[in-house]
Write a structure and sequence with these properties.
The structure is a homodimer. The first copy, chain A, is of the alpha/beta class. Chain A contains nine helices and five strands; from the N terminus they run αβαβαβαβαβαααα. In chain A, strand 1, helix 2 and strand 2 form a beta-alpha-beta unit.
């Protein structure tokens, strides 16, 4: 094993949506890996504004960032990618059925693409911000899926690539508490996007907004995004 | 279970490159499933001519066909997608190393995307034309990868979707013999593209051309593609 091999043994590729969880994962990776890279996907999400967040966060964190454009791959399959479908309100859905915001195969696809990039960029780990506590029963956020996908990727590439999901067993409260511990992370969260509707300030009505607000409330931490966007609103009002 | 459910139980989604193996799989599926759909990918392959083959084959077979454009996802990672790299000649490579034509993660990605489409289109099976006999050690053509990927997809979508690889244990000779048994298949193979260089007539120098030629030779069957393109060449010469 050469020196170069030893160094590249510690490279992480973070799947960065620009939301709260993946931003926290980015800082988690920064605190544990010698080198961190970030990968985002444009897949027709109506909250495309999150990619602007991802860019700003990587700029702030000094992380090399790549956005892969998946075009119309997921068009028409989910309320997250089809503007003719309504985003459900928080608590409006039954736990037994998958919410309309489920994008079938999204994490399978994101992990597959990340694996291909990880292979080329010599990364040992892919970091993904899924949490099976908080995701309304999305099957591609569960541990058994992540474990299975790691095996598939390792077999398909004939190279061991770990999938690490540091938030898998954390609630949103735990995630906020983790963010507080990592230098710079809260400031980066001020730039993140969570709202399914892509609103700025956040709509505070969708499931994603509600989960985020509850986590910060339970951790007794002020959400820096709210403070930042409240200021933006004041500026807009002052211009009126 | 409704009548509609019973009918949709027999729908296959064939991953169709437009090559010999996936064309044979298309006819294999036609002979076994009530409904067959086909999915192709544009991923910057230099043999992009194969997508024209896929279209013509589906038209001939009366199969609904979708092409998903993956843009520049695989750019620069393989001699198949980067025109600055040379396609190796047949037998020029050592079996111990992966050939430069290996596109890392290609079948992981194709199966992931097919899974998402299969979910939306209510297909029970994805058909893929991989063969572990013939593919120069590509790890994503092996049975243990296919088995693992089937588990990952079923877990990630929370719905059982089978991955069927009818050519997995067949040699190219076996595949030709299978094609001969299925009405219309040989005529469709006349429209298929195999050459890694995307040449018409085929270059006959790359690994893919060599494998195809050997299979037809061993099965003692004339390759209808050669007959068709020889005719094309004659026409071109006649015009000179």
């Amino acid at each position: 094993m050469t020196v170069a091999d030893t160094l590249t043994k510690k490279t992480a590729l973070v799947i960065l949506s620009g939301g709260q969880d993946s931003t926290t994962c980015l800082y988690w990776a920064k605190s544990r890996f010698q080198k961190v890279l970030a990968l985002s996907f444009a897949y027709g999400q109506r909250h495309i504004i999150e990619l602007e967040s991802a860019k700003q966060i990587c700029h702030k964190a000094n992380i090399k960032h790549e956005i892969v454009d998946l075009g119309a791959v997921f068009q028409h399959v989910s309320s997250l990618t089809n503007t003719n479908l309504e985003i459900p309100l928080a608590n409006a859905e039954h736990a037994e059925t998958l919410p309309s915001t489920f994008v079938p195969g999204r994490n399978i696809l994101f992990l597959s693409l990340a694996a291909s990039r990880a292979y080329v960029l010599n990364c040992d780990s892919i970091i993904i911000g899924v949490s099976q506590e908080d995701y309304a029963g999305y099957p591609d956020c569960r541990e058994d899926f992540i474990d299975s996908m790691e095996k598939s990727i390792t077999r398909g590439l004939d190279r061991p690539i770990k999938i690490e999901a540091p938030l898998l067993h954390l609630t949103k409260k735990d995630t906020v508490e983790l963010a507080v511990q990592m230098p710079g992370c809260l400031e980066a969260l001020a730039l993140s996007t969570t709202c399914y509707n892509g609103s700025l300030p956040p709509c505070q009505n969708c499931n994603a907004c509600e989960l985020r607000a509850r986590g910060f409330r339970q951790a007794a931490v002020d959400d820096p995004l709210i403070a930042r966007t409240a200021m933006l609103t004041e500026v807009v009002h002052a211009r009126d």
